[in-house]
Amino acid sequence: MNKISFASVNRKAILFGALTIVALIFSVRLFQMQIINQKMYDEKSAGNSIKAIEQIPFRGVFYDRNLNLLVDNIPAYTLQITPADYDTNLNKILDAVLDFDEGTISNILKKNRIYSKYVPIRIKRGIDFKVVSWLEENSNYLSGVDYIVEMQRGYPFGVMGSHLFGYSKEISPKQYQQEKDYYRPGDYVGHTGIEKAYELELRGKKGFKYVLVDSKRKEIGRYKNGSVDRESIKGRDLVLSIDGYAQKTAEEEMKGKRGAVVAIEPATGEILALVSSPEFDLNQFSYVTTKEFLDKIYNDPNNPLFNRATMSLKPPGSTFKILAAIAALDMGVINANTTIYCGGGFTFGRFFKCHGSHGSINVTHAIEKSCNTFFYNLIYKIGLNNLKSYALEFGFSNKTGIDIGEESAGLITDESYYEKIYGKNWPRSIMASLGIGQGEISVTPLQLAYFTAITANNGISYKPHVVKGYLDNNTREIINYNFPVTKTSVKKEVFDIVKEGMFLVVNGHGTATHIRSDEFKIAGKTGTAQNPHGKDHALFIGFAPYENPKIAIAVVVENVGYGGTHAAPIAKRVIESYLTKGKSRNQQNQMITQVIQNGEEIAH
Fold first, then answer.
1. Which of 115, 146, 315, 594 has the fewest CB atoms within 10 Å, i.e. is most exposed?
2. How far apart are CA 315 and CA 443, in angstroms?
3. Where residue 81 sits, what CATH number does that domain have?
């Protein structure tokens, strides 16, 4: 009996001890949950009954330098599904309503399984009002299905700007993982052009509206009467340096052609027009992009998605003679009176032909007549290493850093380049062609325009850019961005001599006399870049007015022939569009001022 009683007592003690330990653990856990971690569990509990509805901010719009609206926002409806609340039996019905192929919605949902099931997935953007009405009428049967109002891009001024403005596209899984603090699946982000380069400024800040939901996730009212809601903040409205009229003219002139136009304000580095042709319709990328359109544009042999203005590399042809002249004059190997005899060509190992027989000719008239013989000789006086040093000063053989991202650096060769290919005894006859912008030299239209702008402004400009600044959302005051200055070491008198030659190209007996203007003096230089695969490329660089340059321009037209015939007239029309519109605006301002003054005189 004693043994049995003793065992019974031990069992009771063990059981009591176990119960005490369990009770202690529960007490500690309850203390943690109710006291220490109260806030965390309150938030989790609230998450079960509160739904955060994202408020998408308006994306910033684009104005031109005269505050003409170039890129706007247009309201559009987007259907979305929240997987946690959605019944997949609705897939076939929604496929039919949205005019999808059967299985489309199922595939979209599968693709987005990597994200939280409580995050709404955008199914289709730009749904029409009939679909919106159907959703409203059947909302009680469409758990997890709703629509939101978003903004798609519109282009009210009639400027295409496909490579300039760029477009947005749905965020990729990789981008989402990198920036999930702001974006969610289905968000659109800038993919090219200004839309990409200024994404952070344009996107604004998202807001949130909090609503109470029941166990079936149905909305039953505002949370705390909206006191904790957060308003979205609109993205910055950008003021571009682009002149809408010059841009539109350049686009019209380049229709049906391959090539590019870039125009710059010399004193500021501001891009006035930037066109790559052929272009593509940005409206097709606003929201829903059809497979047919993508197939067509990707398979187009003219490659309209390629930005020729900033990435196409071509030999500069005779436009490069301007740089050679600047280098030679600044180094002192020639002066304004130095002459070189042209008898129709130049011999160094072999004969290099000139397109005329110009006799004894100085640098100014060599530019005017585009004498090859003069510049064949000149390159040997300058030397390749020196020429490259000057080229770098003027923005060649490097990316300019333009604020739309994609850009090619180009190539200006020096002695080390040929030593790597041929060794120390590389053939010096190669140099002759480099003096006239042929051979192993490549530049972009943007670089040519930038070089022309720096030359027109006597060696000083700013990094080329397409955005001047932004409009303050409250005051609507323009807040200007700052850009680094470019300043060469070249003496002013060198520019005077070279620019006189460019003046004679158009206004003397040069290669572009047919683009003379009665309203203002244009200075320029034609070029024809040899193309071993077909017709030569036509080039022209120039600036105007000659006395006080307001616009510098480069035009490249592929596979058409001579620069004077095909590129120079385009440049003239873009220059006219910019300067005459400016003149009209000045006249308007003068008229307004005169009216005010007359009114004041009458009042007194």
1. 594
2. 6
3. 3.90.1310.10
Query: Which strand (E) or helix (H) includes residue 529?
Result: strand 523-529
Q: Quick one: angle between helices 492-507 and 445-456, nearest 10?
A: 110
Whether residue 273 sits in one domain with residue 184? no
Distance CA(379)–CA(386), nearest Å, equals 10
Q: Is residue 598 part of a domain?
A: no
Q: What angle do CA 81, 87, 89 make, to 5 degrees?
A: 115
Q: Which amino acid type is present at position 332?
A: G
Residue 382 belongs to some domain of the structure:
yes
Other C-beta atoms lying within 10 Å of the C-beta of residue 139: 13
- Neighbour tally for 344: CB within 10 Å: 13
Same domain, 254 and 229: no
| Residue 45 burial (10 A CB sphere; 0-12, 13-18, 19+) | exposed
Is residue 45 a part of any domain in this protein?
A: no
| CB 385 within 8 Å of CB 392 | no
Q: Which amino acid is at 83?
A: P
- DSSP type of residue 519: S
Give DSSP secondary structure letters for 303-326: -TTS-HHHH--B--GGGGHHHHHH
Same domain? For 451 and 392 the reply is yes
Instruction: Count the domains in the chain.
Output: 3
Average pLDDT of the chain is 88
**Domain match, 184 and 106 both:** yes
Q: pLDDT-derived band of residue 593, with 50, 70 and 90 as boundaries?
A: very low
What range defines the domain where residue 117 resides? 52-240
225 and 365 inside one domain: no
With 50 as the cut, is the pLDDT of residue 16 above it? Answer: yes
Nearest to 369 by CA among 165, 515, 468, 513: 513
Burial class (CB in 10 A: 0-12, 13-18, 19+), 587: exposed
Do residues 119 and 53 touch, judged by C-beta distance below 8 A?
Answer: no
Q: Is 91 among the domain residues? A: yes
- Report the pLDDT value the prediction gives residue 461, as an integer from 0 to 100: 97
Q: Are the C-beta atoms of residues 314 and 560 closer than 8 Å to each other?
A: no
Among candidates 175, 253, 202, which has minimal Cα distance to 63?
A: 202
Q: Which two tokens stand for residue 535?
A: 């017709």
Place of tokens 């039996």: 89
Tokens of 165: 């403005």
So what's the pLDDT on residue 217?
A: 62
Instruction: Write out the two tokens for 449.
Output: 């325009």
Q: Which residues pair with 602 in a beta bridge?
A: none
Q: Are 10 and 62 in a shared domain?
A: no
Taking the CA atoms of 487, 552, 369 and 562 in sequence, report the sign of the dihedral they define: positive
Residue 588: pLDDT above 50? no
pLDDT reading at 206 higher than 50 = yes
Which residues, 6+ apart, have CB-to-CB distance to 345 below 8 Å?
Answer: 351, 352, 353, 354, 372, 373
DSSP per-residue letters across 486-497: EE----HHHHHH
CATH number for the domain harbouring residue 349: 3.40.710.10
Question: Contact, 390 vs 446, CB < 8 A?
Answer: no
Q: Which of 205, 202, 201, 198 lies closest to 183 in space, CA to CA? A: 205
Residue 262's alpha-carbon distances to 116, 240, 254, 307, in angstroms, are: 46, 15, 12, 12
Judgement on whether residues 386 and 495 belong to the same structural domain of the protein: yes
**Beta strand pairing status for 460-462 and 359-361?**
unpaired
Q: Which residue has the tokens 């060509």?
A: 345
**Do 168 and 299 fall into the same domain?**
no
d(CA 465, CA 449): 12
